[in-house]
Amino acid sequence: MLAGHDTSNHRKDVQIKVREEILRVLGDTLTPTIDQQRELKYLNMVHQLPKRENSETIKFRNHVFLPKKPILINIYEIHHSPKYWEDPEEFIAERFENENDEKREQYTWLAV
């Protein structure tokens, strides 16, 4: 089962909900189709795949990140900051519904 390591590993209710969705959508199919992947809405809220490769220089505020150099970000602090999240220690998958994307401040959610 796929899931965000920091969230669903500690939340049985989230694991159960993800598992039920996978079984409902995929049944006995081991490899989901594109349409089935789109149907896995709750799983996609829990586990968002990152885009990890940058091939050019990135300028962010007063920082410059060179291509192909490691960037270390304290994701835990961002994801658990009361500045950005109400009840930051609670995992609430519905925060990541598409309609909430526009309300969320940029860079406050970094998929891992």
UniProtKB/TrEMBL annotation:
The keyword Heme is annotated on this UniProt entry: yes
Superkingdom of source: Eukaryota
Pfam families per record: p450
Keywords linked to the UniProt accession: Heme, Iron, Metal-binding, Monooxygenase, Oxidoreductase
Cofactor: heme
GO molecular function per UniProt: heme binding; iron ion binding; monooxygenase activity; oxidoreductase activity, acting on paired donors, with incorporation or reduction of molecular oxygen
Family matches, as PANTHER family: CYP9F3-RELATED, CYTOCHROME P450
Record-stated family: Belongs to the cytochrome P450 family.
Protein's recorded name: 13312_t:CDS:1
Organism field: Funneliformis mosseae
Classification of source organism: Eukaryota, Fungi, Fungi incertae sedis, Mucoromycota, Glomeromycotina
